[in-house]
Amino acid sequence: MNTPVIGVLALQGDVREHLIALAAADAVARPVRRPEELAEVDALVLPGGESTTISKLAVLFGVMEPLRARVRRGMPVYGTCAGMIMLADKILDPRSGQETIGGIDMIVRRNAFGRQNESFEAAIDVRGVAGDPVEGVFIRAPWVESVGADTEVLAEHGGHIVAVRQGNALATSFHPELTGDHRVHALFVDMVRANADAESL
Q1: What is the reported pTM?
Q2: Is 50 a catalytic residue?
Q3: If you placed Cys at 29, which of 19, 75, 166, 196 could pair as Cys (CB 3.0 to 4.6 Å)?
Q4: Is 185 a catalytic residue?
Q5: Is 177 annotated as catalytic?
Q6: Three-state secondary structure along 159-200?
Q7: Catalytic residue, candidates 17, 18, 157, 177
Q8: pLDDT confidence band for 96 (50 / 70 / 90)
């Protein structure tokens, strides 16, 4: 696969920024709202935003179950902030009616780093990303309380897990799409290419 087609779940959140970052990382990027659009992409990004709202809209637009099915079948997926929460197998103190897609054996705490006015930036060393640390933008960000045996911890901040990977699923507490540094997106694009190559064997 030369140029993977990667969707961004475009129900709420910083969709445009992810589309730009994916294009800069040599992918074809498309917004995805409905099941038929999901069926046309090789992988999907779940953006930041409000995880409860995204969950409810995914059900409303009929994309939640097809998305769960594709993630179970191994479709590469990357979640940032609220997207990390969506990929967790378990959330601490979920809001009423909040659902997740699952896919990463982890327990996530919502808004763990504080409220909107406590947002911050920090240099984060991310395993698999070469060069200088990634500038992490944390906005009402979650952290990972614990992970299962098959989940790889890629980064920590302040003693808390902020980036993980399990198989074809990647998640970060922070927002690399807001910084102009596209190396985390490039890491995901490489994951998508490797998955496609494995499936073609």
Answers
A1: 0.95
A2: no
A3: 19
A4: no
A5: yes
A6: CEEEEEEECCEEEECCCHHHCCCCHHHHHHHHHHHHHHHHHH
A7: 177
A8: low
